[in-house]
């Protein structure tokens, strides 16, 4: 961990201003991902802006009947929030499937969206990685990529986005609210929030330098049968191989978002449109264009199977 | 029943109100970088004040110092263990303001005004906490290295169940209750490579039974 | 005390303290965090500086140049030590690679430097400023590719009996399968750690090491010192499983650092450094051939094993149990060792058997199915009461294998198992049962102790034996209490200090039996002294109730000890009983799993087993050893694998997020039954080892249960869901 200067933020706008003013500044909230990476010299901020004093830890009802979730609401609190449990159970379930209780007690809503990949080559500074060191190459494409992405990848990067929460947020059409260094606020639909790697896998989101997430809003509840299914190598405390968030409507329609498959939470409108035709129809569209390796090719079959499991569970709950 | 420890489900949250109005007050000691202030040159130490096991402590720390290293190396409270230093094992679990966290993934200077409970604050060999006693009786350990983290985690975990925080295995999100399956899921952030898991569950079950 | 004849009746047989499930005497220290581990010795080294290891970024080659100037100039840095300024270093006998590399580099993350600074933060940050220019060389990293170049290791010659080559092809039923197991990491919770200090020319290390005397010897070789100038202490060890059998880089770097800066230095390996810097259990390729009659009686059994290690290393002896476990006139075992430039392979819990049984016990399951014989019955039919390679002239000292199979099956409800796979469903779960034999050799080692009784009658035991979670403190206290007729609370046990008599140490599951036998020997000597001081005939004296009784006279122990106390030291030395008798520990594992019919995820629903391991010294801690080892077997079956990147030559998943070990949620209720057994040829304790028995076969029981659940047979460990759904798809096709 390199030496850094440290400040406690006074207001969201001031934090954003400070971040823009300092070369190599980073916000720190829960710290559960950033400090992990700083110890390994993967993140090397020169200045840390502690945003914890900002509050931003409330969940409130919006005028539209949705929820506005403060950027610093901890994963535990969001999962346990009564409105979330009742009206957005898929979000509770996704949060509870992630990490451990200790980590969820610290990890924040905004930080979770910004979680970085678990690609083992990203995590090892002696190896090439275009995300960590742009232009150095990708060790993963021909390496140990069993749990890396099959969709939305590029020749530069096949990293996955590791978050469970973000998959549910994508399913729910969440909107990310931010404040920029110039004090302006904007709202970014989550569909546009995470970027695909292309030639610039080190640029992971739509945020501009210094821009601070202040909240995530959810539209009105959708009702229906909500399921989050995470498939992993051990029963708990492991990243997803594949995860599927689903809402089955009373009308027979459904929507799906996928984790573990892509550099961002994966959702294809056209796949949702064929939900009535069953899991294979959904999978055919959702997985179209998948680029697999001998090690991660199983993810296509696993996705189909997980979708089938969700349909079966929906039937069972009827 | 909800608990104020879990801010998101407190009455305050239900009533709504603006985030700024509800922001937690920041307690700063003299010289500490209060809101908006910042530390000087990189590598300079920063003062920080927090309570550990009921005792208020003033420290001057390299801001890179994790809470775990502050406890183990500066305060010489070595009961909290470093197993992985990356949030992957749970050996460093302590209770901060009533919540269990991995002390390895948080900076000490971020804990201004906080109330930290470590294994040393739960009990001593002469006066064991009920959870500590249950671990002895049920042989809920072997090498002992993950044990303080398991115990801190278990104590806070029972509070979480009490407060109605659901888990991955909770069948009905609206109804949270104690079960062995709940314990196994909720304790999964504490790895025991000796794998005294069954005995740890038995110890926790015992304490939960006494509490209820 | 020489142990060269079977034990007769002795005070341990009273079973007033030994054999009782006492709570651990070190429990309160562990649950309060007050037991000091190696990195936590503020009490003895309050001014320790911090060392941070710099590991090699390449697997094989050499250092062209190493530039430490920026690191040395960094804030707080006190010294940077590399091969250039470390001075000449020897190499321990038990290490394959050098603990400080350079200029030659033998494996990835081999230590190339240690940075010593005032604070941990400074040392860690300055480590990145050590600039190394590498000359990288091609290496051999792929066991499969090197298999054909593997050679017979000198240490483990081929064995056999009868004529396997002729008999196998003629057998009515033949199994011929190849199984693979990956590299495994010990992943004990406490990282390798040492605090070191020099006083004059003498070195003191507080370290995490299972074998104190070995550590002293290896430090002496490394630093070219006399053993008497080295003091090693390891009173608490946060797990080892073999990882801490040997001197490792933490100790060498801490000692080098302390020497350089003239004050104590402590070094802990960072978790991500451990898998590649330290040792691991090597991967194996195993071919098993079993020829049997139609009713499953084995006539020919062959087991060939390929593994790899650095030049000068050794094989993973995964065929060793196959020499002894089942009958069969025609037999062969062979190990072949390939040269690999991966990190050093070495012992991990039950080296040999743990992975050997992952293969053999699945092969037996396949044989059971091929013959249409129940798997438990198949094993009973193939029981043998003598070493089948040597013949009836070498009987087992005690072999209650069949009892384990029968009683274990009963307790588990094995009779409810359906022989045809895929018959039982519970919701989305396909449910199956599997079983496997457990077998681990019983090893014994010379072990010494010093026992004293002070003027108040308190007993103190001192031995360099270690407690790595095994319960040594407690079983040693129980032994002394039993021998001297005092309550457990009167006994203080001091362990893990090279100033104490040399013990067996903790390894190969020999620790508890050997070390308590050493304490038995010292207590026997002490009893003789005390009896004499009391004016008794030692043979007639009865030690009980804190007193010595003989011929109607009773003298309190403290009076016999005298005001200044009485002390005795002795060691147990084992004769040829382990050669005249095959000695082993046995058991039977049973397991029920659910396999998700959609996703192929496996969840172990329940596990149980019956085990015979001689006298169980403390049923509570022994049971804990067994359940923990069973869980490690679940890990080996379902998730554990160090993945080799054969391009770079290293283990890619080198942390605890990516190298999965079981968590709470992976491990269900476990049931353990100990079969009553006293083995008089093992030691005066009539005990045997139990710390490794539980892992032997446990993973195979899981694998067999998966097959029974879903009909997919996987011979390539771990049995992850990608392989299971692949098998499901094949079956459907």
Automatic annotation (TrEMBL), chain A:
Residues 1-223 form the FAD-binding PCMH-type domain. Keywords: FAD, Flavoprotein. It holds the Pfam family FAD_binding_5. It comes from the Bacteria. The keyword Signal does not apply. PANTHER family: ALDEHYDE OXIDOREDUCTASE FAD-BINDING SUBUNIT PAOB, XANTHINE DEHYDROGENASE SUBUNIT C-RELATED. This is Xanthine dehydrogenase family protein subunit M.
UniProtKB/TrEMBL annotation, chain B:
The gene is paoA. It comes from the Bacteria. Pfam families: Fer2 (PF00111), Fer2_2 (PF01799). The lineage of its organism: Bacteria, Pseudomonadati, Pseudomonadota, Alphaproteobacteria, Sphingomonadales. GO terms for molecular function: carboxylate reductase activity. Residues 1-23 form the signal peptide. Its EC number is 1.2.99.6. InterPro entries: 2Fe-2S-bd (IPR002888), 2Fe-2S-bd_dom_sf (IPR036884), 2Fe-2S_ferredoxin-like_sf (IPR036010), 2Fe-2S_ferredoxin-type (IPR001041), 2Fe2S_fd_BS (IPR006058), Aldehyde_Oxdr_Iron-Sulfur (IPR052914), Beta-grasp_dom_sf (IPR012675), TAT_signal (IPR006311). Keywords: Iron, Metal-binding, Oxidoreductase, Signal. This is Aldehyde dehydrogenase iron-sulfur subunit. CDD domains: fer2 (cd00207). Residues 46-122 form the 2Fe-2S ferredoxin-type domain.
UniProtKB/TrEMBL annotation, chain C:
InterPro entries: Ald_Oxase/Xan_DH_a/b, Ald_Oxase/Xan_DH_a/b_sf, Ald_Oxase/xanthine_DH-like, AldOxase/xan_DH_MoCoBD1, AldOxase/xan_DH_MoCoBD2, AldOxase/xan_DH_Mopterin-bd_sf, PaoC-like. Residues 32-138 form the Aldehyde oxidase/xanthine dehydrogenase a/b hammerhead domain. Pfam families: Ald_Xan_dh_C (PF01315), MoCoBD_1 (PF02738), MoCoBD_2 (PF20256). NCBIfam families: peri_hyde_PaoC. This is Xanthine dehydrogenase family protein molybdopterin-binding subunit.
